[in-house]
Input
Amino acid sequence: MEGFDTSGLVPEYIEDAKGHLDKLDSVLLDLEKDLGAGELDVEMVSDLLGSLHTLKGNSGMMGFTTLQQYVHQLEGALKTLLEGSMPLTGDFLQRLFDAAAVLRAGIEEVEADPLSTPDFSGDAELFASEEPAPGPAEKEVKGQPSPRPKMSASPERSDSFKYIGAKSNILKVDFERLDHLLNLAGELVIHRTKLAEVDRVFKEKYRDKEVSADLSEAAELINKATSDLQEAIMKVRMLPISQVFHRFPRMVRDLSRERGKEINLTFSGEGTELDKTVIDEIGEPLLHLIRNSIDHGIETQGDRSRKRKSPVGNISLSAAQEGNHIVITVSDDGAGLDIDMIKAKALSWYTEEELAAMGRDNILNLIFEAGFTTAKEVSEISGRGVGLDVVKKNVAGLGGMVEVKSEKDKGTTFTIKLPLTLAIISSLLVGAGAEVFALPLSSVVESIRLQPEELKSVNNREVIKLRERVLPLVRLSSLFGCHAGGTDAGGRMYVVVVGRAEKRIGIIVDRLMGRQEIVIKSLDEFVGDAEGIAGATIMGDGKVVLILDISGMIDKNLIKADRRSVH
Amino acid sequence: MLQKVLIVDDSSLIHQMYKLVFMRYKDCKLISAMNGLEALDKLSQEAGIQLVLLDINMPVMNGLQFLENIQKEGIHKGVPIIIVSTEGKEEDTLRGLSMGARGYVKKPFQPSELHDLIERLYTGATS
Output
């Protein structure tokens, strides 16, 4: 074509064309399977027609006119199927299979030499007649023991299944298999711990033996290889969050139009990668938060003008990795949360004094409490039956947390903090009585040792004063009813300080047993939801250890102190 | 003259090809959408789109549905739309034109065909 050199696009055309050819083959195979059933899968055939249509258009634009014409014929033949003017018979299907092979040969020809012109003249009659009436061409086809069309008989096309051996750089894998792979790596992590333990014992017993050094070295190498393997598998499962972000522009556009608002949606950090399991689950909480911003955050254009704000509201979505976490924020420059209304609502649960002691941020975060938005006055404003407690529940289900910060007329920012992956976490193992529990290391702030006389009591609750701050305490042993020793040989006790954002509580444990990578197994398969428990893991020796639900414990012991019945 | 054009086509190859076709319009930015729905999004996200080249046969939302949406919602009316499609049903093309498309180019096209149509559209629009 004049002034239009498409030769540079040939590789892309070929790659694309092969995708369409593969689809053609697979649909034909499916049709063959369904042949006896009588019912034609209309959707499947229509889908294939779309694919062929694209191939036809592409072939035409690339100047491969004969290919374009041939695909057009194939398209026509398939259309007769859809229109019902041609029943699907084994013979007709065979002709389609042949045509697919011929087409593939033609595309391979231009792949080998983009200047060549595949000649389909011998095969053109294949679909010249839409009637099953046996024309001369068809007779010929029928007459051959192997009904391979003329075209493929030429020497350069003799091996028409060569494409089967073709190499590709991309492999699509069923996610379940990857999940399985990660589980296996997880098991390896567990056994690695066991090996390290054996190594330690061995070293003590045979300190000066060469075999001990050998074992140590092997254990070390396996340790490293396991970590690398685990990391590599995690990388395979990572997807950019842009996949989720890009679902929103359309919704924001439609909803804001419906509400008579004008909203500009911006993204940052779209390339941030998350485990696919997290990507799958994060869409819904984000949807709630963004809807919330559109409905209640951003004001109408009139209100905004009165406040001397730009008439166009802004919602921004951002994602960033911080250490072992992903932080996602949804910010708007709207009206901000009405703290007085939240306080008024909260008065049915808390006294004025309690609210005063809670601090502004804690009060704002009450909007995530179950039941908060279902109250009449709030649900009218929210306009839907969905409260933000659902967001909190979803995010907690992902091992994360959500918080809100807001300033009147400046805007609201929701922050979701998520672990990088759900499958494997670093944990601190602690003991209470004979039991062992795991605490996600991400929520551990520090561990301290103290003398029992440092304990104080406030409102019948045990607290300690830690660096001028009052820290509520929970006894792990009484929480799960295990028999506790309480103090160590020196008469001291251990407190693990855990936190979520600014909130802190201390957990009194009997023993600190060290840090370990654990594979989370969901509990609900066995026992359903258990309060205070986020999941379970299996140790190297086969023992099951429960993982504590820190976020739940903090909520129960900090905000709703002594108000367990409130939900 | 042309600075921002939205290309709506489900074939990434066609998008590549348009890059070649539009080389003569220096500094013209091509925005890509793979179907009608994406195109609606792009139209509301990107300011200053001057021309839409629209394929008809696409998954998710085809070109006619796209035109229908534009017409129904009465948005982006000022942006000329040219249908660029493989010869399909004549009635589809006519329907498209009746729904506000300003021109029709049959795929495969010579770049000159498209250039001519664009020139005509622009001189027609300004005179």
In short: DSSP finds five helices and five strands in chain B.
